[in-house]
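From the shared-data thread, chain only:
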Amino acid sequence: MQKIIILDFGSQTTQLIGRRVRELDTFCEILPYNKFPHDDPSVIGVILSGSPFSVYDEKAFKLDLMPIIERYPVLGICYGAQLMAQTFGGSVKPAGSREYGRANLQWIDKTNPLFKDFDDNSQVWMSHGDTIVNIPDSFQRIASTDSVQFAAYQWTGRKVWGVQFHPEVFHSLQGTQLLRNFVVDICGGKQDWSSASFVETTVAELRQQIGDDRVILGLSGGVDSSVAAVLLNRAIGRQLTCIFVDHGMLRKNEFRDVLHDYECLGLNVIGVDASEKFFTDLAGVTEPEQKRKIIGRDFVEVFNEQAKQIVNSQSSNGKCKWLAQGTIYPDRIESLNITGKTIKSHHNVGGLPKEMNLQLCEPLKWLFKDEVRRVGRSFGMPEHLITRHPFPGPGLAVRILGDITPEKVRILQDADDIYIRGLREYKTKLSGEEARRVLAAGVPADMKDGEIEVSLYDQIWQAGVVLLSEVCSVGVMGDERTYEHPVALRAVTSTDAMTADWAQLPYDFLAKVSNEIINKVKGVNRVCYDISSKPPATIEWE
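Structure, as C-alpha cells:
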C-alpha cells in the first residue's frame, strides 16, 4: 500500500493535512519530524508541516533533509517551506506584520505541475509571522501574492516544492487541487485507500490476529467505540462481548436508547446500571477534579468486575485474551509532545488488573474521525450514533456546578433533551464557505443550486446545558413568585477542540428553546447562553 509521510514540526494543522491527503484516497502517516522511516518501501512522497517556531529560533526543529530530498518528492508547507529555503541558502526574516488570513495568488506559474488547473487570483490562507525574503539560486519562484513575493517555489530540476500558505485549510479554495497535484500527479499516488478497502483489509487482519479468542470492549455510546464494536462484530461475531456502564449521568434515556441501538446492530452487549454506586460515592462532593477522579475510579471498578466475570467464564467461543478500544489515529499521534506541550492522554479504560493478562486490540487506530464515520455509514449504523457530538466521560456530572444528586441530574437531563432535540430539528440553508466548511467536516448533505440544508446540530462541534445548581434566581410564573435554578446553553464550533468559538445560533431558535425549557422543566426559571470562546474559557464548565 502506498504511503505519504507527513513530518510534523508541531503545527496545529498537521492532522488537517493528513485528513486532506486521506480524502484523496491515499494513505498517509504522521510522524515526528525526526522519525522518518528510511527503510519503508511504501513511501511515495513527503510533506513537511508548519511549526510554532521560527526557523532561526534556537529551539527550532531541524533535520538533515538531503537523504529525503534525494529519494522522494517533497512539499514544504509554511515552516516546512521556510526551513528548506533557509537550509539551502535562502533567508527567512520576521514579516513587517503578521501575515494571517485570506490572500490571493496574483501571479501563478501555471506551467508548473503543482499549480495544474489553478484559477487566476486563487484564494489561499496565510498564517505566519516570518517570510522568505530570498530563495536559493537553485530555486525558482512559482507564485506570489501582493505582499508575499515567494508564496511558492520549486527547486529547479528536483521534485521539491514549498508554499508559504496552507493548502489544507478550507479557506484555500483550491488547496485540495494543489494536494492532488502533488500526491497523485507528482508522487504517483494510485488512490487505492478508502473506507471500503479499510474494512475489507481490517476484517481479515482481525480474524488472523484474534483467531478463536474472545474480546472485551468497553462501549461509551460515542461514535469511536460504537464503530469499533461493529467492525469487530463483522470480523469475529459472538467472540466479542461489549460492556456498557451507566453511571447515572448520561443524557436522558440514553442508556436505554443506546442499548437498543446496539442490539439492533447485532452486538453482544452487557448493560450495567451502576448509577446507585456513583451517586453514593459522589454525595456532597463539589470540587470538579475530585468528581472526575471518583467517577473514573468507580468506572474502572465496575468495568473490571464485569471483565473478570467474562475472563473467568467458560465459553465455547474460546478464551478471553483481548481488550478492544475505540482508539483513533489522532489519539496516537506523537506530534504535540515534540514541542513540549501536553498531548491528549491515550483513552485506555485504565487500571485493568495485570492478572487478566489481556492484549490490546485497536481496530480503528489508523483512522481520523471523519473516516470512522464513513466506516460506520458503510455498516448501515444509525446516523444519530455516527454524528453524535463529543460527550465528556464523566457525563453530566461536569455540567452540574455543585454536588451531584439524582434530582439535579433529572433537571439537567430534561433541559438538555429539549436543547439537543431542538438543534437536530432546526434546519438552515448554507452556501459558499459556510457550506464548504460543513461538507469538509463530513456532514452528509446534497448541494442544490449552490446551497445545502443541514441542522444546527450538524453545524457545531459540541453542545450541552450547564446547571448552576448552587445558584437560584427570582422569577414569576403565572401569579406566583419562583426561586429556581438558571441553566446555561453552550454550543461551540471547532475542528480539533484545541480552540473553539461560540456558535452564533439564531435568536428565534434560542427564544424557542428558552421558552420550552422554562415551561417544561421543573426547577429552572432562567436560561442563559454562553458566548465565551476557547481560550480563554474551556468548552466544558468543569
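The CA atoms of residues 25 and 95 lie 37 Å apart.
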